[in-house]
Amino acid sequence: MTRTLWDVLGAIADRRGRKGRQLALQGVLGIAIAAMLAGANDLRAIFRWGRRLKPEALALFGLTRAPCHATYHYVFRSLDADAVAAALGTFALGEDRARHIAIDGKTLKGSRRLDAKALHVVSAFATDLSAVIGDLVVEPDQNEITAAMVLLKGLPLDGAIITGDAIFCQRESCRHIRDANGHYVFVVKDNQPALKAAIAESFGDFSPRGNEHRKGRSAA
């Protein structure tokens, strides 16, 4: 039986204390997602959208009253963001198989708070599904390479083509993709000169650097 988004929200762990669970997490998250789909882009807009819901609409979310602004604040602070992202990614994928997964790292605009750094996230985007099927926050003591490896280990790679820029062209990542029966296409730049030269030599006349490479050997 196919799981609905409502089922997925109901399976997300509620890490609030007992006093903070007066409103079901499933309903609060459901309203928040519906509000964001309707254009709400911050907590205040989500709160205002939910407050306008009629009693019969709130009942569809399993609630008898609309959450206040503080409720959304504490709910989102209590969530395990990576676990939520994994659950939503699995839902987006459903029973389909991603044929092309693009991984990339981006710094989230507007995520800087006080002296803390802005959040940097590595995401996996299934192009044929037009959906993000996984993302992971890069911790301050991590880098994109480490985070991408963790992300890849949680994705269904069988038969998929994984693409990314030069930072993801790492031996361990490539080995894991192949061991999982996936394929990869990564950019190689001048930051790995030996690898770039080896690729040019392997492809010979088919390489755009073929003539350049042969001239270099002749001069030597």
Compose a concise summary of this entry.
With 220 residues, the protein is of the alpha/beta class. It has 10 helices and 5 strands; from the N terminus they run H-H-H-H-H-H-E-E-E-H-E-H-E-H-H.
Question: Which helices and strands appear, and what pairs or packs with what?
Answer:
Blueprint: H1 5-11, H2 25-37, H3 43-51, H4 55-60, H5 69-78, H6 81-93, E1 100-107, E2 120-126, E3 131-137, H7 144-153, E4 161-164, H8 171-179, E5 183-186, H9 193-203, H10 210-219
Parallel strand pairs: 1-4, 4-5
Antiparallel strand pairs: 1-2, 2-3
Helix pairs in contact: 1-2, 2-3, 7-8
Structural features:
220 residues, 14% strand, elongated, Nucleotidyltransferase, domain 5, alpha/beta, five-stranded mixed beta sheet
Describe this structure in words.
The protein has helices at residues 5-11, 25-37, 43-51, 55-60, 69-78, 81-93, 144-153, 171-179, 193-203, 210-219; strands spanning 100-107, 120-126, 131-137, 161-164, 183-186. The protein is an alpha/beta fold and 220 residues long. It has 3 domains: 5-79, no CATH class; 96-187, Nucleotidyltransferase, domain 5; 189-220, no CATH class. The longest helix has 13 residues, at 25-37. The model has no long low-confidence stretch (mean pLDDT 86).
